[in-house]
Amino acid sequence: MEFLTQIIDTIYENFFDPKKRVFVGYLLSAILISFLWLFIVKKKTLIECFRKIFDKKIFLSKSAKADYMLFIINIIILMFLSPILITQLAIATFVFEYLHSQTFLMPIDVNLQYLWLIPYFFTISYFVLDDLTKFITHALMHKIPILWEIHKTHHSARTLTPITIFRTHPLEGVIFVIRSALTQGVVIALFFYVYGNNITFITILGANLLSFWFHLLGSNLRHSHIWINYWSWLEKIFISPAQHQIHHSIKKEHHNKNFGVTFAVWDCVFGTLCTSKDNEVSKFGLTKNENKYEHNVLYLYLSPFIGMYKIISKHTLSRFQNTNKQTFTIKN
Ligand SMILES: [Zn+2]
Ligand SMILES: [Zn+2]
């Protein structure tokens, strides 16, 4: 019974805690932005806007139903895994101790006049660094074959809804929890060491100030069927909903593009940016030969292990054949 209460509490927390992406306030703001976009920019009637936003074909699709299942099952799995994951505090303490033993960093004597600036500097630095590590981890999940097997679960979605953010394999969840703990640990320890007790996050309703605005301004529309794009110059600074939809596109030319979450500058720097101009998306998902039983929940959980096993055995086999070839050449 306690277990069930815990699951319900976690689901409730996801929708009613402003620190979470699918907080009901952010979902409502995404609906409002969609309405305004379709009504004002796309000149649709109110009925058309309503039909488009709440399209049954999207929200009741097989793909969306698999997303909902994964959302619940992942909560249960991560409930078991979280106690064994390294906590943010442990990492922060370790980094703090390490920095303490180094001479290249010295605590700064802050002029009292500028003391109020430190929390802003801390909040912005944390947000930017967090976004950078998300970009790097995401790019690695695409580039390293074993990690791609894990990340494929997210890309197997045929329709996108805000709940698609939870369509991830638990192993990806673990990787991102470690990433987050490391980033938070490093930033908190660094600031604490240099600025002492003056560090606090600037928050709105308990959420990081910048995360709050990022989510309120429609972060949930990235996983949606509403194509909202920015001006090209702005898409080189911030990732638009359309750009993340391009990231999910089935077209070959869109593969490995737009790894960024908030900032597009990382993609600009690493040459993986794709703006929405002249880039329409016809379908979401994986290519045909990667896309087997994409909406079967059991398959979604098992396929990364099957894929990883195939890669490892192929690698071992080719190494074995190479060794045999060398032995044969030496003998001859
Ligand atoms: Zn991806
Ligand atoms: Zn996505």
Write the layout of secondary structure elements.
Blueprint: H1 2-16, H2 24-41, H3 46-53, H4 56-59, H5 62-81, H6 88-100, H7 117-143, H8 145-155, H9 170-195, E1 203-204, E2 207-208, H10 209-216, H11 241-247, H12 265-270, H13 297-331
Antiparallel strand pairs: 1-2
The structure holds zinc ion (2 copies).
One zinc ion binds at residues 138, 142, 151, 155, 247.
Structure description:
The chain has 332 residues and is mostly helical. The protein has one domain. 60% of the residues lie in helices and 1% in strands. The protein is built from 13 helices and two strands. The protein has helices spanning 2-16, 24-41, 46-53, 56-59, 62-81, 88-100, 117-143, 145-155, 170-195, 209-216, 241-247, 265-270, 297-331, and strands at 203-204, 207-208. The protein has a two-stranded antiparallel sheet. Strand 1 and strand 2 form a beta hairpin. The radius of gyration is 23 Å and the shape is globular. The protein starts with a helix and ends with a helix. The model has no long low-confidence stretch (mean pLDDT 87). It binds zinc ion (ZN) (2 copies). One zinc ion (ZN) binds next to loops.
H/E topology pattern = HHHHHHHHHEEHHHH
- Outline the biggest β-sheet: 2 strands, antiparallel
Number of helices: 13
Number of domains: 1
In short:
The protein has 332 residues and is an all-alpha fold. 60% of the residues lie in helices and 1% in strands.
